[in-house]
Write a structure and sequence with these properties.
CATH architecture of the largest domain in chain B: 2-Layer Sandwich
Number of domains of chain B: 3
CATH topology of the domain at 411-505 and 676-849 in chain A: Aldehyde Oxidoreductase, domain 4
Distance between the termini of chain A: 66 Å
Number of helices of chain B: 12
Shape of chain A: globular
Structural class of chain A: alpha+beta
Oligomer: heterodimer
Strand order of the largest sheet of chain A: 3-5-1-12-9-10-11
Largest interface: A-B, 35 and 26 residues
Radius of gyration of chain B: 19 Å
Strand order of the largest sheet of chain B: 4-5-10-6-7
Helix content of chain A: 25-40%
Distance between the termini of chain B: 45 Å
CATH class of the largest domain in chain B: Alpha Beta
Strand content of chain B: 25-35%
CATH architecture of the domain at 411-505 and 676-849 in chain A: 2-Layer Sandwich
CATH class of the domain at 411-505 and 676-849 in chain A: Alpha Beta
Largest sheet of chain A: 7 strands, mixed
Helix content of chain B: 25-40%
CATH superfamily of the domain at 411-505 and 676-849 in chain A: Aldehyde oxidase/xanthine dehydrogenase, molybdopterin binding domain
Chain lengths: ~850, ~280
């Protein structure tokens, strides 16, 4: 066994995952080939809203190699099998059918709906977060029966011996559609005379959720300064490099099923599949093999996953479905798509007195797993790093004929941070303060104990001053302002902009009681098992499900430090409900602050038991035992010692254990965090804007982030670089655009602009370390921080560059076309309309654009 | 992303390719580098029943100094055009423009002949070849003919090529020491097609411009010459370039799409033409 250095946490341990991945030995869903496996391909609706009047699959059925073709009607009975008694009792996921029906209690079947249609009265849904008691929940069948509600909705499924034959057969299915009126714009959708996405619901409003703290009216009535803005969070497409895919494999011996899925959430998926398909949970095994990114889009349960499972049940053969990129753009959830109306009340000195936020949040055509809850994750974060007394928030979820939305990296928090950090610049303009100064005047004093925020939650620890001071120094703020002055005086066609974002975000989802209070349909604990093996090697089993985050490396470091072994001696098992039966999976920057802490605590239990065995072996009192560098020794007699591997061997030989002790050295820990964690940071974006062509180029990006103690610096840097890149993508490049008929006009990577390395700057990254009092390790989480912090820094820098033209507002993405138009309009020149924006994107209101 | 089934034949020579095209008529499509054709087949926007692969016709892969011009075989890959020393020395515009086509993978598979035959107004090479007044050699069942680049691009993805003809060679002039050039490609991401592009080939005499040839990318259904600006630039000096290019968008018909309105494209054409001419006169 290698001699273990003292500590691995915080050190530069290389990612254990990488050798296999970069040499092409990853095991993705599409690599899985099982005997007799058939391929499913899905026919999708070309219409955003239509009645299906007839489907003729006869030609498709006659194609060579086609095993079966199913319409929505053919599969109806599959969704109404008897569910398991209560999956929540086993898994902590309370998505029972009864609850779903309660959630959809306002659904009143129309009188004629039962006369002919075989549609049952049960409300089918994948949604597990019924945010209000009276939320409207549409019936969501995996394959549409009578009506399609967004372009891309499944209409029929072909199963064939290979994917090519299946695709050819799909083209032979004839469907007659009767187009219905389409609504893609949220503001249109909430008008009384709008077309209805779901006629049965009688409205396009799914829910309205509200929060109020302090006396908001009084704050606004007494304030000297009011700033009111409207911001648009454009719709984004997550674009995981591995698209979704699933293989469902029936086991005729046990009567059970194994489902391989490119998912972030094998445990949640297992619970929902059991419930939706009526398969006893103990006969389901879900495996997430190597997963090529998710960004929230694989924190879900999708039609194709239940389709593959029920087809494998119907046909008794393994069924594979793998999404292609075109499908991915239509059939995997989208992110963001909110209209944010935000108002500040403040003093002349720039001190905030109160804040009001009203959101419209586009749900798309159906509610996905956490869709309604995503804006609520933001609700608590609009006050940001600023302390004041009065805060009012409301959000209305709206149905439109578009792909459903759900969690996308940051999930609610990038939206919140964008709005507060944009309006802080507006407040700076209104009060004549520097954007740095207006922020400083509203910061919390540094704190390291839970502190109540305007939204009524408790931040764990924060020192904004230190992060901001350091980033100003790194960027040479004064020097940048001087360069900016020179360029302005010289009328340089390329102007310089300096943009700020001082942010905090909410990680470590989540205390189970808080989730319950928010009506979220699941628990927030995480589970770990740490097993010393008889050989001295270590197995760590985690309920987190990494898909790029490097948990295998980081969890090895945590366990190695706790047990005094080397990370190479630690194996981390994950992503398979057969080996890791308990878990709440990976999303919301929760894995380290909940799952990593569970590993640490389970390892401590192992050490506690090992200490007892060591004391017995050394014939010393347990209280006299010291544990250092993997060795137990007797205080005062360091020559009397045993190593952890020796203790492990003794634990399994079991012939010399303390009286009454169970053999073995393996411990479990279920960790339910007492609070969230709140990383924070200060970002500066330096952008050159070519005012002739409208092109914005980020020249430098400085970030000082604080995610508490760092386990693996390289992984944290990678998360920040990728996260900032994804924020830059929203700020300057990406936008999913629909036309009036509900067609996605940015349906490929040609028109939907995912930036690459040539478009992105070098980053100057530093950290401060403010431990969290929430957990034993003081860790906070970092998976989404870059994506949350960066968009307002970028946009503020573009506006700053254009301020000599009188520009005070621009929407995302700040494309060349939009920047050019903004300059023209600010100069009183006509710059034409944005014809591409005929629908989907709301118009900027007059009062919204200006501070 | 799954193409319709198709047949595939390897052409052993240009004549064999012409023969295969003759046999299969409209059903057949030539495959060169495949970086335009295969994506649209995968999207099922094109479904040719037969692909005739030119990939092994090695006598279409060359770059030759022919004295007064340079001859380039149609199957020469973009990366070879980009790096060729003869082109860099005597026709830098073409080598530079080739370096901006797509991404490295596209440049290592895509060919100059394939790009021209596809006839996409948003591609970079056609507008450079217009500005260079290149000539194309075309072979068909009835022999060989030569077409000027200015007569080759007919309409949206329509060229002068008949279904049974093969583009075999591209001829570009050797630019003299008094000739400057520039290509200003405006795109959002490194690998993207141009939102708008402007190529300039400028002959100088006594500190002013004697002739200027401007090729525009993505300003209509075909690559275009900015003839009005070319006329205005004749005789212009450094101080009058900005005024002379104000009608660079005259005679164009740019489209509106998610990247830009026609109006913004016209604006970009003027800005980019000015920048291209300014750079061309200074090198």
């Amino acid at each position: 066994m290698t001699e273990a250095p003292e500590k691995f946490v915080g050190g530069g341990v290389l990612r254990k995952e990488d050798p296999a991945l970069i040499t092409g030995r990853g095991n993705w869903v599409d690599n899985i080939r099982l005997p007799g496996m058939l391929h499913a391909t899905i026919l999708r609706s070309p219409y955003a809203h239509a009645k299906i009047t007839s489907i003729d699959v006869s030609a498709a059925r006659e194609q060579p190699g086609v095993a079966a073709v199913f319409t929505g009607k053919d599969l109806l009975e599959e969704w109404d099998k008897n569910p398991t008694a209560n999956p929540a009792a086993v898994t902590g996921y309370s998505l029972s059918l009864a609850e779903r029906e309660n959630g959809g209690a306002s659904v009143t079947p129309t009188a004629d709906s039962t006369s002919e249609s075989p549609v049952s009265e049960k409300t089918h849904t994948f949604c597990g977060w019924m945010v209000t008691e009276d939320i409207k929940v549409p019936d969501h069948l995996p394959v549409a029966v009578d009506e399609v509600n967004y372009a891309g909705e499944p209409v029929a499924v072909v199963v064939a011996t290979d994917r090519y034959k299946a695709q050819d057969a799909v083209d032979l299915i004839e469907v007659d559609y009767e187009p219905l009126d389409v609504v893609t714009n949220m503001e249109r959708a909430i008008q009384d005379d709008s077309p209805l996405v779901h006629e049965k619901l009688g409205t396009n409003k799914s829910y309205t959720w509200e929060l109020e703290n302090g006396n908001v009216d009084e704050a606004f009535n007494n304030a000297e300064v009011h700033v009111k803005e409207r911001y648009i969070q454009q719709r984004l497409i997550p674009n995981a490099i591995e698209t979704r895919g699933v293989v469902a494999n029936p086991d005729p011996v046990s009567g059970g099923y194994t489902v391989y899925s490119s998912t972030q959430v094998p445990h949640i998926l297992k619970s929902v599949l059991a419930t939706y398909c009526g398969i006893p949970e103990q006969r389901l095994r879900v495996v997430a093999p190597d997963v090529g990114g998710g960004f929230g889009s694989k924190l879900n349960v999708y039609s194709e996953e239940v389709i593959a499972l029920v087809l494998s049940r119907k046909l008794g053969l393994p069924i594979k479905w793998v999404e292609d990129r075109s499908e991915n753009y239509l059939a995997t959830i989208h992110g963001r798509d909110q209209i944010q109306d935000i108002e500040l009340a403040a003093t002349r000195e720039g001190k905030i007195l109160g804040m009001k936020v009203h959101l419209l949040a586009d749900m798309g055509a159906y509610l996905q797993l956490n869709g309604p809850g995503i804006p609520l994750l933001g609700a608590f974060m609009y006050p940001g790093v600023y302390t004041f007394d009065a805060y009012g928030f409301s959000c209305t979820g709206v149905f439109t004929n578009k792909t459903p939305t759900d969690a996308y990296r940051g999930a609610g928090r990038p939206e919140a941070t964008y709005a507060i950090e944009r309006i802080m610049d507006a407040l700076a303009r209104e009060t004549g303060l520097d954007p740095v100064e207006v922020r400083r005047r509203n910061f919390y004093e540094p704190f390291d104990e839970p502190t109540t925020t305007p939204a009524g939650i408790q931040y764990d620890s924060m020192n904004m001053q230190a992060a901001l001071d350091r980033v100003l120094e790194l960027a040479d703020y004064e020097g940048l302002r001087e360069e900016q002055r020179r360029r302005r005086e010289a009328n340089d066609p390329v102007q310089l902009g300096i943009g700020f974002s001082t942010y905090t975000e909410i990680c470590g989802l989540a205390p189970s009681q808080v989730l319950a209070a928010l009506r979220a349909g699941g628990a927030g604990w995480e589970q770990a098992s740490v097993r010393m093996l008889a050989s001295g090697k270590v197995e760590v089993v985690t309920g987190t499900s990494p898909h790029g985050q490097g948990h295998v490396t980081s969890w090895s470091q945590i366990a190695a430090d706790a047990l005094g072994v080397s990370p190479e001696d630690v194996e981390v098992l994950h992503g398979d409900t057969a080996t890791a039966p308990w878990g709440r999976d990976t999303y919301g920057s929760r894995s380290l602050a909940v799952g990593g802490v569970a590993v640490h605590l389970a390892a401590q239990k192992v050490v506690d038991k090992a200490k007892k065995i060591a004391a017995h072996m050394l014939e010393a009192a347990e209280g006299d035992m010291e544990f250092e560098g993997g060795r137990f020794s007797v205080a005062g007699s360091p020559e009397k010692s045993v190593t952890m591997p020796e203790v492990a061997a003794a634990a399994y030989l079991a012939n010399n254990l303390p009286e009454g002790m169970e053999p073995g050295l393996s411990e479990d820990y279920f960790y339910d965090p007492p609070n969230f964690t709140f990383p924070f940071g200060a970002h500066i974006c330096v952008t050159e804007v070519d005012t002739e062509t409208g092109k914005a180029r980020i020249r430098d990006y400085f970030a000082v982030d604080d995610c508490g103690p760092v386990i693996n610096p390289q992984i944290v840097d990678g998360q920040l670089q990728g996260g900032i890149a994804q924020g830059v993508a929203q700020a300057l490049y990406e936008e999913a655009i629909y036309d009036e008929d509900g067609n996605l006009t940015t349906g490929s990577m040609v028109d939907y602009l995912v930036p690459g390395a040539p478009e992105l700057p070098n980053y100057t990254l530093e950290r401060t370390v403010t431990p969290s009092p929430t957990n034993a390790m003081g860790v906070k989480g970092v998976g989404e921080a870059g994506t949350i912090g960066s968009p307002p820094a970028v946009i503020n820098s573009v506006i700053d560059a254009l301020s000599p033209f009188g520009v005070t507002h621009i929407d995302m993405p700040a494309s060349p076309w939009r920047i050019w138009q903004t300059i023209q309009e600010a100069q009183g020149r006509e710059a034409g309309s944005r014809e591409a924006d005929l629908s989907g994107r709301p118009a900027q209101t007059e009062e919204g654009g200006e501070a | 992303m799954i193409p319709v089934a198709f047949e595939y034949e390897v052409a052993e020579s240009v004549d064999h390719a012409i023969e295969l095209l003759g046999q299969h008529g409209d059903e057949a499509k030539l495959l060169a580098g495949g970086h335009s054709l295969l994506p649209i087949m995968k999207l099922r926007l094109a479904a040719p029943a037969m692909l005739v692969d030119l990939g092994r016709v090695n006598d279409l892969k060359y770059i030759r100094d022919e004295g007064d011009h340079i001859a380039i075989g149609a199957m020469t890959r973009h990366c070879e055009v980009e790096r060729d020393q003869t082109l860099r020395e005597h026709c830098g515009l073409l080598a530079y423009t080739a370096s901006l086509v797509g991404d490295p993978q596209v440049r290592h598979r895509g060919t100059i002949g394939g790009s021209i035959s596809h006839g996409d107004a948003a591609s970079d090479l056609p507008s450079a070849l217009l500005a260079l007044e290149a000539e194309f050699v075309i072979r068909g069942p009835n022999g060989e003919r030569t077409v000027r680049a200015t007569d080759f691009f007919k309409d949206y993805l329509q060229t002068d090529l008949a279904p049974d003809e093969v583009l075999t060679e591209i001829r570009v002039p050797k630019l003299g020491s008094n000739t400057g050039w520039s290509y200003q490609k405006f795109n959002r991401r490194a690998q993207d097609w141009a939102v708008v592009g402007a190529c300039a080939v400028v002959e100088r005499s006594n500190g002013s411009i004697s002739t200027a040839r401007i090729g525009l990318t993505n300003m209509g259904s075909t690559p275009l010459r900015a003839t009005a600006a070319e006329r205005a630039l004749s005789g212009a000096d450094a101080g009058s370039i900005a005024d002379a290019v104000q009608n660079a968008d005259e005679g164009t018909s740019p489209s509106s799409d998610v990247a830009a309105s026609a109006e913004f494209r016209r604006h970009l054409a003027r800005v980019l033409t000015r920048r291209a001419v300014e750079q061309a006169v200074s090198r």
